[in-house]
Design brief:
It is built from 6 helices and no strands. With about 190 residues, it is an all-alpha fold.
Length: about 190
């Protein structure tokens, strides 16, 4: 009975962590879907100018605030050596992320999620569990912070993998189209 109670206390922070991550993913997917639906409706109704203003006011304000927050946090994790920055930029390009501010957003997200998960685990202990003391609480909190720090890196690797798969699957069609164009007497620049 005592061992079972202890194992339940160890599982609760993990469940809270999974719930928070699922909530963040759901919020992102909801806002992304909502923005796409809004753009399609605007095109159908030929109200692109009004739609852009509404979209900027509704969906972009949250996104802009989060990106601004990530930029402020980035100074704590941004690499100092030019070689590391270059390697990171190459990975962002592989994932399809272009832009001057992308590294700042990425490294800021690492710090943000580390602090978020650290806070969630610590506050969960204080308000719900309350029995985990001392070293165990520190261990859970630090583990959550480490997971939060590496979560954006895992997401980046997943985006790179997805993009490689899309290119790999689309390569035969692109090659076939180039062959058809060359056989028809067109240059490769026509493809």
């Amino acid at each position: 009975s005592e061992d079972r109670k202890m194992s339940l206390e160890a599982v609760i922070p993990l469940l809270v962590f999974i719930t928070v991550i699922l909530f963040i993913v759901a919020a992102y997917l909801y806002t992304a879907k909502r923005g796409t639906e809004q753009r399609v409706l605007d095109r159908l109704l030929n109200e692109e100018e009004d739609g852009k203003e509404k979209l900027k006011k509704a969906g972009s304000s949250f996104k802009e605030k989060m990106l601004s927050l990530f930029s402020r946090f980035s100074k704590y994790a941004y690499p100092k050596m030019e070689e590391d920055i270059s390697t990171a930029r190459q990975k962002f390009l592989w994932a399809g992320w272009r832009g001057e501010r992308v590294p700042y957003y990425f490294y800021g997200a690492k710090i943000f999620f580390a602090l978020l998960l650290f806070g969630v685990v610590t506050l969960t202990n204080f308000f719900y569990v309350g029995h985990v003391k001392g070293n165990i609480l520190i261990l859970f909190s630090v583990m959550a912070a480490v997971i939060g720090f590496y979560l954006p890196s895992l997401w980046l690797k997943w985006k790179i993998y997805q993009r490689k798969e899309i290119m790999f699957k689309g390569f035969p069609d692109a090659l076939d189209m180039m062959v058809v164009c060359v056989e028809a007497g067109m240059g490769l620049d026509a493809t």
